[in-house]
UniProtKB/TrEMBL annotation:
Organism: Pseudomonas matsuisoli
Residue ranges with Pro residues bias: 45-76
Ranges for region Disordered: 39-87, 126-148
Protein name (Swiss-Prot/TrEMBL): Lipoprotein
């Protein structure tokens, strides 16, 4: 068995006593002790690295956008569109002059959920195109129909 001795020939440690568990911490302490004695004053100063300047991206030059010309409506078409929903029970066409829907081939008019029909010079109204019909006062008749 080999022995380690210091000074007077007396053995300090035997190889059997030396283990890695004892040597590794001693080595770490020795390494760290060498680093601890060095000061940062001996080191040259570190200059900060400037950030790179942003690179401007080229902007594509698109041709100016020209809005499409809006064609004027033909003179024969009405200039006002219907403000009211069409009748649900019959086919009808909007008449701008009268301001009501007109049911073709019948003297029947529709506006705001009410059908109108003139019978014997008096205006009648109904919620259905075939009646039942009730007399209606002139102020309740749509203005375009009052002149008929």
């Amino acid at each position: 068995m080999s022995e380690f001795s210091v000074g007077h020939g007396r053995p300090l440690l035997s190889t059997a006593q030396v283990s890695y568990k004892k040597i590794v911490p001693l080595l770490l302490v020795a390494l760290l002790a060498g680093c601890a004695g060095r000061s940062t004053e001996d080191m040259p100063p570190v200059e900060p690295v400037p950030a790179p300047a942003p690179v401007p991206l080229p902007t594509p030059k698109a041709p100016p956008v020209q809005p499409a010309p809006v064609p004027a409506p033909p003179a024969s078409q009405p200039t006002i569109s219907p403000r009211f929903a069409p009748p649900p029970h019959v086919a009808a066409q909007w008449d701008n002059r009268l301001g009501v829907y007109v049911v073709p081939k019948r003297e029947l008019y529709y506006r705001e959920r009410v059908y109108y029909q003139k019978q014997g010079g008096e205006w009648m109204s109904s919620s259905l195109p075939d009646g039942p019909w009730e007399p209606v006062a002139a102020p309740s008749v749509p203005p375009g129909l009052r002149s008929l």
